[in-house]
Amino acid sequence: MTKKIGIVQMNDTHANLLPHDDVRYTGAGFQIETMGGYPRIMTKINEYREKHGDNLLVFDNGDTLHGTYEAVISKGEVMIPYLRELGVDAMTFHWDSAYTPRHLKSLEEKLGYPILAANVYHEGTEDHFFQSTEIFFVDGVKFGVIGVASNIIKKNMPEPFWKGAEFTNGIHESRHFVKKLKDEGVDVIILLSHLGYPQDIELLNRVDGIDICLSGHTHNRIREIEKVNDSYIIQSGSLASSMGYLELVIDQGQIKRINHEYIILDHTVKEDAKMLEMLADDAILNQHKAYLETVVGESLVDLHRASSFYGTMDYLLLDSMRHATGLDIAFSNGWRYGGAIQKGKLTRRDLYYIVPMDPPIMTAEMIGEEIVQMLEENLEATFSKEPFKQMGGYIKRNSGLKVYFKLENPYGHRIQYVFVGQEELDYKKTYQVAYVTRQSVPERFGQNHRAFGKNAIEAMEELLKISSYNREDTGNYIPI
Fold this sequence. Notes:
The protein has 480 residues and is an alpha/beta fold. The chain has 14 helices and 28 strands. The strands form 8 sheets. The protein has a 6-stranded mixed sheet with strand order 7-8-10-11-13-12, covered by helices on one side.
């Protein structure tokens, strides 16, 4: 008998419970509009539940419990009632381990569904830190789900993210658990991954037997389902601004057809009334509402992270760091979360969209040659032709440098010229730089790393007190 079973994907929502600004790509360029939020996700899930009844699975690819002020200050706790209300069946993770993997594991019982990560082990052992797989029975069809968490957590994230845990790229584990699940009579195998779209494609080319890959991490807006090595793969945007839906037509345990829908959660999607009431009554949200909604300044330009090469959100952060420290060069990581902020009045909540963890500003001394080496490594980590050498995120952001590069060149040969202001970078000269987090300037680069004494939010507020923010030059990286 033919059966129709629905699958909902949400990925990289970054704790955006509330509507927020985000970027739409248009013929006229980046267009910013207000959209998203969990009440809109809830509305769509309710629609699919009405259509499928119990024949619906809801999966979350992670980057869920971190990304807003309230999520960070509550260590993810603020998200739990809303995730339970959505009826999520399983998740995997990345930024969710910011409060330590052990804390994430402790949230599993409160969430009421498994956190799957076949590629994460207790440090120094072969014992899995999290559950590797889960089996779901839906209308007589046996689904096996393999979770693969982000593999870069220990490579470039602060120590709390990975303390006590080891991570692999998940290829060996995926191959092992595909066989194990098939031996257990599973009909359909789903890979729930936070490796990233290029990495998932590479994995699918190297691992047979996966029917569907739900991909996360790289915020790809996949509008048409793609096929790789007999596997179907989707990724559904980010920031609770969009989501994905699959309808599987199954006969005798075999997928005969897949219908896919990429859903933009804009004003055309009504917000769920019950979840709106939950948000209005939320003690954590209400506790911090006045603080976050205080107006702290104005921007004369739209703020966003819509490009691999630059983000006006990041320029506000970087320029404020240079103003606070008096230094000529500042670095921040190429983060993808945060959405966008329309030009006009800025609230403190807007600033926390830029850096929800409010990191301390650090300073260091770097030789010009080290700066170039660090930038070369970052270009390779962003654009490497080998997917598992990519570390996620966009190009490292900077203020104070102008970098001319040839993207097509191999690693170590991309950067052609670097200027500090009007002067060409001197490879032997020592430069004072400001930065936030080890993702921006890893410890192995530079000397005399010190905390400056101010955090990112304070520095941005101080800059905004002086004048409205404006930035016309976005050409700190110029491909040639």
